[in-house]
Structures are given as structure tokens and as C-alpha cells.
Amino acid sequence: MDIVSDELPAGSLFDQIRARVRKSLRDGVQLDMSTQESRKLLRRHVNSKTNFVFLFVDINNSTQMSLSLQEDRFALLIQIFAQEVSVVVSGYGGYVFKYVGDAVIVLFPAGHDPKKACVNAMSCSKAILGVIQNIISPIFGEMKLPDIKVRIGIDYGEVLVVVYGKDVQKAHIDILGSAINIASKIASITQANQILVGESVYNILGRSTNEGVYLNNVVALREITLDTAKWNYPSNLNVGSIYRVYEYIC
Question: How far from 33 is each of 29, 86, 110, 171, CA to CA, in Å?
Fold first, then answer.
């Protein structure tokens, strides 16, 4: 997909999402949300290092929502959000790695083509915003549920895939590395319905001018100024510098 095109599903796909969200509100989530495919992918890299783009997406002000909603209604809201994020992710070559509370952690394999993985992650993040803003939130409003906004953080890097146990097929599998941690930290400083990406992604996509990275002749990434009292993670790309963060202008 063109990264600067309108990422919102149209026509029959738009109607399918609306119908599924309405049915999920009535009957519960409709789709299999297993993380089995990501585990299969990771098992091929056990005890080795590999490159991924990581995308963290979580609901802004979810704690406040949990205090104002009955537990079953709040749980259903989270489940529907995670369901629809999962659908979008699969359409961009991503894999859901984990569901953690109100957050979905996604990985995009980047061993062969890091630039494509970065572009896919950014396109996916834009599509997620479109689905939430134009489909899910309006339907939630009709049902007297809170309007939801999300925060998205993206980063790229090499990680180690590890298992906790002897049986690779059954043991818990996990990822260790700074990239997944920094993606989480980036998401935590993101404002509602904002997408921020790390310096590693910026460098892969290529510098253009002092204004930022251009994609398809449009400025897509622009550096943001951060409070060093709250953001002081060192750059592994520029020794002695703080790790830079950029806003995706979509």
C-alpha cells in the first residue's frame, strides 16, 4: 500500500468491520485471536539473533475507562479493540506477539528487507488509527461507550529469541533486546492518536533534509523535542547522544 494514501478500508471491507464490531458488542468477539503464528515464526529463530520492527499500540486513558465502566463492558471494549487491531496487522504482514492488558504488541520480520518492514509497520499504524477513529469509536458512541484513542510507538532492531524450557515446541518463548523495550517506552510518551517512531526506523527510511524524512514527496517523519528529564535513553547509533524520536505525520 502507498504509505501516504488513505489507509481507511472502503466499500465492502468497511461494512464488514462495522458489522463485526456490532456483532461483537452483542455476542462477544468473533475471531480467533491466537498468537500461534508469531510463536511459529519465533521458533524458527530460537537462540539466535534476528531483526524485527516492533509496534506497540495501546488505549489512551484506559485506567480512567476501567473506573467508569462495569468490568464486563470494559473487558469487551478491550477485546474488540484487540480483535480489530489484529485484523489490520495481518493485512500488513505483521504478527501479534502479545496482548498485555489494553496493549497489543506486534512484530514485523525485518531480516531480509528492513525498509519494507518499517514502511509496513507505519502503514499498519495509520490503518489502525483509521479503523478506530472512523469505525470503532462512532459505534461505541452509539452504544454509550467511551470514545477510544490510541498511542502507537514503533522501533526497529536486533533481538535475541529465547525459550524457557527444553521442549522448543511447548516452552514459553520470548524476545530480549532493546528494540522491543524502546518501542514500549516510545508508546508511553505518545499523545492520543499520535504515532511516534524511533531513530533506527528513521535511519532505515533515509534522511532527506533538515525537515525530516520524505516518503513519496511528502514529509512523513519529523523529529520531536523531548524532555530529557523524562526521556534519557542513550542512542546506540550516535554515541553520546540521546535516542531520537520522530512523529509520523500521516
Answer: 9, 7, 23, 20
Which cell numbers hold the place of 112?
531480509
In whole angstroms, what is the distance from residue 177 CA to residue 204 CA?
Answer: 18
Strands (E), 60-149: 95-100, 103-109
Question: For 170-212, what is the HEC assignment?
Answer: CCEEEEECHHHHHHHHHHHHCCCCEEEEEHHHHHHHCCCECCE
Number of residues that make up the chain: 250
Counting the structural domains of the chain, the total is: 1
In a domain, 20, yes or no: no
What is the pLDDT confidence band of residue 10, given thresholds at 50, 70 and 90?
Answer: low
CA distance 56 to 247: 14
CA distances from 135 to 5, 31, 32, 142 (A): 18, 17, 20, 11
Which tens digit of pLDDT belongs to each residue from 89-127?
999 999 999 999 999 999 999 999 999 999 999 999 999
Residue 181 lies in a domain: yes
User: What does the alpha-carbon distance between residue 225 and residue 38 come to, in Å, rounded to a whole number?
Assistant: 34
How many helices (H) and strands (E) the chain has is answered by 8, 9
Whether the model pTM is above 0.85: yes
Amino acid sitting at position 3: I
6 found inside a domain:
no
Distance in angstroms (rounded) separating the CA atoms of residues 190 and 35 = 26
What is the distance between the alpha carbons of residues 232 and 124, in angstroms, rounded to a whole number?
Answer: 28
